[in-house]
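ok so I'm stuck.
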Amino acid sequence: MSSQESGVGQGESSPQLKAVSRVSAALAGLSDLQAILRVGLDSVCDLLGARRGAIYLADEESSTLLLRLGRDLNAVEGQIDAKTVSKGDAETEGDAAERGLARRVMDSGRTLLVEELSREEDIRQVGLATGELTREETGFFAGVPLRSRHKVLGVLEAVGDAPRRFTSDDRHALTCVGELLGVAVDRAEVLEQLSRGRETYQRLARYCLVAQDEERRRIARELHDETSQSISALALNLRALVDVAEMSGLSPQLVERLKKVESLAQQTGYELTRIINDLRPGLLDSAGLVAAIRRFAHDHLEAQDVKVDVAVKGSLPRLAPEIEANLFRFAQGAITNIARHAEAHSVWITLECSPEKLVMQIRDDGRGFDIS
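replied:
not stuck anymore, here's the structure
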């Protein structure tokens, strides 16, 4: 648009460009969809001199346009959040003619500009019947589709009291605003989907952790109540057999073999107890995370002459069982790797607590490995 057509001097921005720039800046600088839509609606209404305006967003499930935002809506139009425009009833309701026009913008996906709603020629030009506008409308109507990725996500409409002659620059500016607001709506929907997906993933991960921990509890309980008791009884019976064999004067070779079987039974019992504690240490439930980590590190590292230092910075409250179990598994894996591979002399385990987060750090002075 030339400066003569717009009445704007050299070096000055046209009203249309200013409106587009405001919406573009809002899209780049704001994250709240409602705030971006408010800037877009106000910019269009200010540009056109509209008395009132509204933004409708499409609801795919119900095939309706839900009134998301309004400017200077009067009492006849009712509550913003409650109003809808649907394919089935928008044209037959007749309580607000521009709602039928908004539906047409949504269905066509094209900007709709009516310079004078009371003029028959303008009414027929946009495909409306002469009697379809039931209220005495004398002003203009502008309807802009909010588009993104070739999809109409909503409609912005502006209505004025007086007729208005729309220029090509008006149409281009309104189209640009519609595209920008469409991107904002699309971005908000994508972020909402990502948020829902993240929440679903977190729920599933929490469920898996709880299910895994419950299964570990069950296995540990069965091993303790059944297998461990049987091995303990076996070891006691073997001890009794050794005593009987020695008192009866049986051959030294047989006594020695019985003692070896007894020792094997006792060693199996010790290993089974270790497995039970690895599956679900009782200290984790009774004394908490720090005590369970300290005990596990003592059993697996200090027996190899590795010095262990466990420190807590801040106040560590009792956490949810699945969180404590997950943190313990992390420490358990790190300690096991150190015992098997690090050849370390000292290990430092630090839990740093704050109201926002808990950081666990496990370091050793072992030989490490080449991460490349």
